[in-house]
From TrEMBL:
It comes from Cytobacillus dafuensis (Bacillus dafuensis). SUPFAM superfamilies: Carboxypeptidase regulatory domain-like, Concanavalin A-like lectins/glucanases, Subtilisin-like. Residues 1-31 form the signal peptide. Gene3D superfamilies: 2.60.120.200, Carboxypeptidase-like, regulatory domain (2.60.40.1120), Immunoglobulins (2.60.40.10), Peptidase S8/S53 domain (3.40.50.200). This is S8 family serine peptidase.
Length: 1450
């Protein structure tokens, strides 16, 4: 990543960053991508002179200036050729007819024994000397190594100087401390956190990508029986994904492992495996990890066992540590230090390395591993994207270096690039290395980036291969990996293998299958029915002149409606010579329209003429032959020659390695911009930079100089990297060249040049403009114009002849300087390549038999079982692929045709042919109208597309909302969008040769504008990535209370033109949802869309209204960098505000939160917040009123128009206030009213609010009181009032406020309490609208019985038969009463009891009654009086006196 701070360029990382999350200084680092410190290299490994001082590294002198004793390393001259030892041992084993296993052990033993013997022999005198010095106290300790024949010594300077004099010693080097650094890498701004929410039951994406699961499933191979090793930071041995895979694991004693031969701590000597960093655990997990229950399948070879060496910690590690580690790997040692080669691993993973360049210090170690059949797997390093940045030891030819890809199979930006300084294609291969989830200490899991993460994929695959065939050698395994890799290319690396991806993406299934079942080839042709009846056409401008004994490239532009099959050039040197035929090669264009070139050899071009013609054949065997062209041939050009390049420059050719010389109009933005005169020039690349490792020459026609003065005059413009050179060279034989002029740096402008050729008077000479480059940076190159040969010198020329002798002196000085990563081309040693790969000036310019009964198709042929596929050649429909042997199903498919399947049996080491004829699919049409769902009005300019068919361009509706799309039959998702409408996806089926009508109503999005952002509007910093495809995003959260929004625009603040330089304006915009782990960016919702940056201090606004993206929660506005730094705008950052925690970064396909210190990335989103559906707060639902006009209150979106409806009919409108409330009066209808509200704008309205029902009732209830009757009297303390109330909306009936029980028919009843005396009751019937009717009733109550006073007779009365007895008493007036006479004696002969005799009121309250004595005797009858009032009260009393009839009382 790049950054700009306060107008000054500041890189957010160091471009030469090394391999790991943490960098090792000064030499080696783990290959994690989170490193931003470059690593220094050892001194050059070129031969050291016998001078003692030259053997000692200068750094040691500095160390001795500070310390009395220092640890230093001795490398001895005599190193064992272990490859030779292994080869001889293998031959011996073969002669002895040993098994493969025995042969491997013999080789390993022989390698170890030869190394130990060599060390013992060559170190003897040195050890003797060191023993003596140790006794003297001049040496503290020393240690012998055999993995590299060398020693480590801790002693004083005198000892070191003495050792330098030993002839056995080649060089003395410091034991530099290797340290971890916590700085971040150039591309990974933070280490991605562990994805704790990952699906632990699934197979990790990277494991699936290399097809390891197919190996487990289809072959049963999982690495069982194979041992992998790592030199790293150690391993948490009891991690659940690794514990049972540790070779030292003992199931009988699971917590007490056997660490002998299985673990070595070269740093701190701990007996048990440990990892205080995490890097080594992560790497080992990728090789073999999985938990016993099958979860967390993070490893490639889960059946393999692991061992490990700890050589790095968070504090330090040394080169001594690495030597110890490498020696232990070759033959793990027992407690006494004895090596055991039988315990060596099958593969060792090395996710560490140093800087780029050439340093052989560790090369013997790698060579010895390889000789012992230990596969040396290395990471390529993380110093990408610089060319030539692959790191040591991965640069060695004997190392197998792995680059890193992301989930899109794109090369990770941090992945180091080749080529190797040893001339090898490096990296060797690629594997997933971005966002790799694996084991971490603490029995946890997490993701890391880096080539450190890529290399263990290869190590794991090697384990699978070794299980499939344990007898395979390292060489054979390497070749299998190459042969079965899936080639990967891109715009920077268009062919494979290349120096970015190597041989491609490693593939476990093909690698193992090639061993288990062998490999075969399937080939054939995919065609369609038809005939090619049209002839090809061509354009060719014949030469007007050429030159003898000069290689002559000729070009022709050819076109055909189907395919050009071949182009030939036929020529002859004279009329009598036989025609010679050359096959022309296509140099530009494609199989339908291209430029073809054929090169006539120099010896065929002779004075006086050359005759040639073209012969062209197309796919239909139509042949066209051009006219004969007769070209005059002359010896050469001479003084007076002038070439301004405005027409085809006859006789000019270019050739050489990485030749990009072009004739034409300069078109590169960073080139000269225009020709020196006219329009055309010759340049090293008219549209871009020249290449690394180029040695390309542009040669003039031969020059025949007359006697006298002669001058080469030309104009040039150049921008050549300081380690690269341009030369003007001269030769008399095209073999031996002399430098005439030299160029490097930057000319700034077109410059006139002159070179004196007078020294070559009278000779035929050749002039070449040569550019030679190294492996570092590239520039715009060299442009040539207005070339002349003159016998008159120019007086205004910028130069004549540079001081070549001074340059030669500089070259010799360069040879003696220490080498660095940027090694300059030695200008003195530059020589053009032989004349080969010749290109004519027109070679890069493209202008627009029996007839076969079919025509070729560009199609894809896939193997369904393996998923492997290949694309046919569109020129002739042919295809071919290498595939594991066996029976498979092939499918041929292409756009617009029905796919066809075919079963094939691919033979091992054989070829099978499978041809396909595909039938075209019929088409159908979908038509319809897009309308506003609310208004029904047609929508013009709505956009419709078929998601499944991107080749059908999106269309827009016309002014009537109509659309029509024609597509191949099938089921599609019809995507419809329009500005300010909610987009819609509809599943449709288009019939074959038919039409369907599909009308689409779109819901308008009713909203009001808003903006979301988390910066303060002022930029203090800016950032840019090194490579394309990376970016930033800001998480946009809808404010509280806002549930939906339509995204209308993205706002991006870009830095001004001051940085980067030259900068750029192109970038892309996308929208993601927040469905990723822990709310990270998840699914891409829309985009990417191209955008152009404003770099004037203003916000760049990217209009997104037409996309119709509606969000319901968090979303991300994403900035994607479209061009590599520095040809890109830089995204500004607000660093003065506190980090809002909303900024995220996209790096190599992986999302992570941006570091807080990066500030708030200045990205905002403009939205229309959805207008809320109004809410009616007053009146409440189901309300009743007797008022014909009511006030309706509610809430709505501010500033929108609120529309009130009564049963769907609009009855009122009012604007919502700024606070979101509204109030409006509404007139009601009699009976039920249903009120709803909508918010509306010019585009439409929201959905209606929840309905509010209200009843307008202005009629009073009818009321009757059935009982009690008016004036009812009672002696009860309560009375029941009954009656009936009639009203459709009756609410209640009350009596004096007390609620009555009301039946469905309106009958009511209520028990009320009475007071003594008069009780008045008001009965009221009330309906829900508040209408009421009242009636009254009076009830009288008396609770006390009447009193009886002065009752007579008070004494016994004796009377005779027929006499009258008078009964008297006083009581309440107006009541009734009676009395009775009851006989009490059993001797009475008269009737015992008389009937009731009424008492008559005589005077107020005085009552009298009479009784006539009967016959017979009545002996003491009792007189009982009863008094009753109107209320039902009754009093009874017996008179004091009794009555006797005809009997005297006793």
């Amino acid at each position: 990543m790049k950054r700009k701070r306060h107008g000054q360029v500041a890189f957010s990382f160091i471009l030469c960053a090394l391999l790991l999350l943490s960098t090792f200084l000064p030499q080696f680092a783990l290959a994690n991508s989170n490193s931003d410190a470059s690593i220094s290299l050892h001194e050059s490994s070129e031969a050291v002179s016998n001078n003692v001082e030259t053997k000692i590294d200068k750094k040691l002198n500095d160390q001795f200036n500070k310390n009395e004793t220092v640890t230093f390393l001795l490398k001895l001259k005599d190193q064992v050729d272990t490859n030779k030892v292994a080869t001889e041992t293998a031959k011996k084993a073969k002669d002895q007819k040993q098994t493969a296993a025995k042969t491997k052990l013999m080789k390993r033993s022989a390698v170890v024994s030869s190394l130990r013997a060599k060390a013992s022999e060559t170190q003897y005198s040195i050890k003797t000397y060191l023993d003596q010095e140790k006794k003297k106290g001049n040496v503290e300790e020393f240690q012998s190594f055999y993995i590299v024949n060398g020693m480590a010594v801790t002693g004083n300077k005198q000892v070191m100087d003495k050792l330098a004099a030993f002839p056995e010693v080649e060089k003395i080097l410091p034991n530099e401390t290797v340290q971890l650094s916590s700085n971040e890498s150039s591309e990974t701004s933070i280490q991605p956190t562990a994805d704790t929410s990952a699906d632990t039951t699934s197979i990790e994406w990277n494991i699936a990508r290399i097809e390891a699961p197919q190996v487990w499933k289809n072959t049963g191979i999982d690495g069982t029986g194979i041992v992998v090793a790592s030199i790293d930071t150690g391993v948490q041995w009891d991690h659940p994904a690794l514990k049972e895979k540790y070779r030292g694991y003992n199931p009988a004693n699971p917590d007490q492992p056997d660490n002998t031969y299985n673990w070595f701590d070269a740093v701190s000597g701990q007996a048990a495996p440990n990892d205080n960093v995490g890097h080594g655990t992560h790497v080992t997990g990728t090789m073999v990890g999985s938990e016993p229950n099958g979860t967390n399948q993070i490893g490639v070879a889960p059946g393999a066992k692991w061992i490990a060496v700890k050589a790095f910690t968070t504090t330090s590690g040394t080169q001594v540590d690495l030597l110890e580690a490498g020696e232990w790997i070759l033959a793990p040692k027992d407690a006494e230090g004895n090596p055991h080669p039988e315990k060596a691993p099958d593969v060792v993973n090395n996710s560490w390395g140093g800087g780029a360049g050439k340093d052989d210090w560790y090369r013997p170690m790698v060579q010895n591993w390889r000789a012992a059949e230990i596969f040396p797997s290395f990471s390529a390093g993380n110093a990408g994207p610089t060319n030539g940045s692959i790191s040591i030891p991965g640069t060695y030819p004997e190392s197998f270096a792995t680059g890193a890809t992301n989930s899109n199979n794109q090369l990770a930006s941090f992945s180091a690039r080749g080529p190797s300084p040893y001339g090898e294609v490096k990296p060797d291969i690629s594997a997933p290395g971005a966002n790799i989830r694996s084991a971490l200490p603490g029995s946890s899991y997490g993701t890391k980036d880096g080539t450190s993460m890529a290399a263990p994929h290869v190590s794991g695959i090697v384990a699978l291969i070794k299980q499939a065939n344990a007898s395979l050698t390292v060489d054979q395994i390497e070749q299998i990996l190459f042969d079965t890799a899936i080639p990967l290319t891109d715009s920077l690396y268009p062919t494979s293998p290349n120096t970015g991806y190597g041989h491609g993406l490693v593939n476990a299934y093909d690698a193992v299958s090639s061993i288990v079942s062998g490999k075969g080839r399937v080939q054939g042709q995919v065609v369609r029915e038809g005939q090619d009846t049209e002839n090809p056409t061509y354009q060719h401008t014949a030469l007007t002149e050429t030159y003898s004994n000069m290689t002559l490239p000729l070009t022709v532009q050819v076109q055909d409606n189907v395919s050009v099959i071949s182009v030939e050039l036929q020529y002859r040197a004279s009329e009598t010579a036989e025609w010679q035929t050359l096959a022309a090669t296509r140099t530009a264009g494609d199989y339908k329209s291209g430029t073809y070139q054929a090169v006539i050899p120099a010896d065929a071009v002779q004075v006086p003429t050359l005759t040639y013609h073209w012969r062209i054949k197309d796919y239909g065997q139509n042949v066209v032959t051009s006219d004969d062209y007769v070209v005059p041939v002359s010896p050469g050009i001479s003084t007076g020659y002038y070439q301004d390049f405005e027409s085809q420059p006859n006789g000019w050719i270019s050739y050489g390695t990485k030749n990009t010389w072009e004739w034409g109009v300069p078109a590169f933005a960073y080139g000269p911009g225009k020709a020196a005169s006219g329009e055309k020039v010759y340049g090293t690349n008219l549209k871009g930079y020249y290449d690394n490792f180029a040695n390309m020459s542009l040669m003039m026609p031969p020059i025949v100089l007359p006697e006298g003065n002669a001058y080469l005059q030309f104009k040039d413009w150049y921008q050549i990297e300081s380690y690269d050179y341009g030369h003007v060279l001269v030769s008399t034989d095209q073999q031996n060249w002399e430098q005439l002029s030299r160029f490097t740096g930057d000319s700034q402008t077109w410059t006139e040049r002159q070179i004196d050729l007078s020294a070559y008077a009278g000779q035929r000479i050749y002039i070449a403009f040569n550019v030679s480059t190294n492996f570092t940076n590239v520039k715009a190159g060299w442009y040539i114009d207005d070339v002349a040969l003159s016998n008159t010198p120019l007086t205004t020329a910028n130069i004549e002849l540079e001081d070549v002798q001074q340059e030669k002196l500089l070259a010799r000085q360069l040879e003696n300087e220490p080498q660095t990563n940027k090694k300059a081309v030695n200008p003195e040693a530059i020589k053009p390549t032989e004349i080969q790969n010749v290109m004519a000036p027109t070679a890069t310019i493209t202008q627009a038999a029996v007839q076969p009964m079919s025509l070729p198709l560009g199609a894809t042929v896939s193997v369904l079982e393996s998923g492997r596929s290949v694309i046919t050649s569109p020129a002739d429909g042919s295809y071919g692929m290498i595939h594991p042997a066996g029976e498979f199903t092939l499918r041929a498919e292409t756009y617009g045709y029905y796919s066809t399947d075919q079963r094939v049996n691919i033979p091992a080491d054989g070829t099978v042919e499978a041809n396909f004829t595909l039938n075209p699919m019929p088409q159908g049409t979908v038509r319809g109208t897009v309308t506003n769902k609310q208004t029904g009005q047609p929508l013009a300019n709505a956009t419709l597309s078929l998601i499944e068919d991107a080749l059908i361009q999106p269309i827009q509706t016309d002014e009537n909302g109509r659309f029509s799309i024609t597509a191949y039959e099938g089921t599609y998702t019809l995507h419809v969008s329009a500005p300010f409408y909610q987009r819609q996806d509809i599943t449709i089926t288009i019939p074959a040769n038919g039409n369907i009508e599909q009308n689409i109503p779109l819901q308008p999005f009713i909203g009001y504008p808003g903006e979301i952002g988390y910066d303060d509007g002022t930029e203090e910093d800016a950032r840019a990535w090194n490579t394309t495809g990376n970016g930033w995003a800001v998480k946009m959260s809808l404010p509280e209370g806002k549930n939906r929004a339509l995204i209308t625009a993205g706002l991006f603040r870009l830095w001004d033109d001051t940085w980067p330089v030259p900068g750029g304006t192109a970038f892309q915009v996308a929208i993601y949802d927040a469905s990723g782990p822990n709310g990270a960016p998840g699914k891409k919702v829309a985009g990417p869309f191209n955008a152009t940056a404003l770099k004037n201090g203003q916000w760049t606004v990217v209009d997104l209204k037409s996309e119709g993206v509606v969000v319901n929660g968090d979303f991300y506005m994403v900035y994607i960098q479209q061009n590599a730094y520095p040809y890109t705008p830089a995204l500004a950052a607000d660093k003065s505000s506190r980090s809002a925690g909303h900024s995220w970064q996209l790096n190599n396909g992986s999302w992570s939160q941006s570091p807080k210190e990066d500030g708030n990335m200045m990205i905002r989103a403009r939205v229309d917040f959805e207008a809320m559906t109004p809410v009616i707060t007053t009146p409440k639902d189901a309300a009743y009123t007797n008022q014909s006009t009511i006030t309706v209150e509610g809430k709505a979106t501010p500033t929108t128009q609120v529309n009130l409806f009564n049963k769907g009919e609009e009855v009122a409108t009012t604007p919502a206030r700024k606070d979101g409330t509204f109030t409006v009066d509404v007139t009601l209808q009699n009976g039920e009213n249903v009120l709803t509200a909508t918010s509306s704008t010019v585009r439409g309205s929201t959905y209606p609010s929840e309905p509010v029902k209200i009843i307008l009732d202005q009629e009073k209830p009818e009321l009757t009181i059935i009982k009690p009757a008016e004036g009812f009297k009672t002696n009860q303390k309560s009375v029941t009032i009954e009656g009936k109330a009639t009203d459709p909306y009756l609410a209640a009936v009350t009596a004096n406020g007390q609620k009555a029980n009301v039946a469905e028919d309106g009958s009511y009843s209520i028990d009320v309490l009475l007071n003594n005396g008069e009780n008045k009751f008001t009965v009221t019937a009330k309906d829900r609208a508040g209408n009421e009717t009242s009636k009254e009733v009076t009830v009288y109550a008396k609770f006390n019985p009447p009193a009886i006073e002065n009752l007579q007779p008070a004494q016994n009365v004796v009377i005779k038969q027929g006499d009258t007895l008078t009964i008297k008493l006083d009581s309440e007036p107006g009541i009734s009463g009676f009395f009775s006479v009851r006989a009490t004696s059993t001797y009475a002969t008269a009737t015992a009891t008389t009937s009731e005799i009424v008492l008559i009121e005589q005077g107020e309250g005085h009552y009298v009654g009479t009784w006539k004595a009967p016959k017979g005797k009545v002996n003491g009858a009792e007189i009982e009086v009863v008094m009753r009032d109107d209320y039902g009260n009754e009093s009874r009393q017996k008179a004091a006196g009794k009555v006797y009839v005809n009997v005297k009382p006793n």
